[in-house]
Amino acid sequence: MAPPGESELEYLKRLVGQLNDKIHELEGKASSAVKSVKDSVTPQQQLRMILVGPPGAGKGTQAPKIKEKYCVCHLATGDMLREQINQKTKLGLEAKKIMDTGGLVSDDIMVNMVKEQLENNKECRDGFILDGFPRTVPQAEKLDAMLASRKETMDHVVELQIADQLLISRITGRLIHPASGRTYHKEFHPPKKAGIDDVTGEPLIQRSDDNVETLRKRLGAFHSQTGPVVDYYKKKGIWTGIDAAQSPNVVWEHMSKVFSKMASP
Predict the structure, then answer these.
(1) Is residue 170 annotated as a catalytic residue, yes or no?
(2) Active-site annotation holder among 135, 170, 182, 186
(3) Whether 48 is catalytic
């Protein structure tokens, strides 16, 4: 009932106004609380990890899940390098100059590219997934030194392990939709119509380097490079191996257990 001297309509309008004011007040408090929680994340509560695995082991399947669940950035060093070169940054220009002469980009440049992302990429505030780096023990040591300068340490190194022969079987059957990056497999995950993308109806391709001879060379290089790096992190006690021959969902379950402490309040 409206108070004396105030019509029913005016009374209702006043109530609605008061309710709106209260809603805005509560929304503001909730927003501040969320921001406070995010801003209070300490280096110890962040997730900093390296995802190791040969081509075709499933890093491209697992990394986006980790990124989404733990709100971290995914730093694929090959992509970072191309981005820096395309944007003609100082680091990108240095790297391009070396690459144009057939040289290998120095460890310092690669570590500084990672550092630049950690300092300027908002997605990296709560941690990161490194993919494709470090490839050598000196790179791992420089990465540790850079993190130490930020009062941070590496939390986990997860290696997706799978037999070469199974990998070759996986990759030689791989089909790709170039525009979106969607992947299929002739045997394990075929498109609804052979050779055609399910979503767009456009033709799928097979990468030119997805052949047995090229793969054997790539896998040989991967094992010779990665072995010492894996040993380096095993000695630090932060390495975990996961059987990547299992289904992606089972691999994810095992990986989630590795990070279970991160999910605890």
Answers:
(1) no
(2) 135
(3) no
Q: Is 14 a catalytic residue?
A: no
Question: Tens digit of pLDDT for each residue in 9-20?
Answer: 676 677 767 777
Q: Quote the tokens at residue 123.
A: 């997605």
101 pLDDT higher than 50 = yes
Calpha distance 265→254 (Å, rounded): 20
Which among 14, 35, 207, 257 is annotated as catalytic?
207
What tens digit of pLDDT does each residue of 113-141 get? 899 999 999 999 999 999 989 989 999 99
- In the set 48, 142, 170, 174, the catalytic residue is 174
Is 207 among the residues known to form the active site?
yes
Task: Report the chain's mean pLDDT, rounded to a whole number.
Answer: 84
Binned at pLDDT 50, 70 and 90, residue 38 comes out as very low
Contact, 57 vs 160, CB < 8 A? yes
**Catalytic hit among 69, 125, 218, 234:** 218
82 is catalytic: no
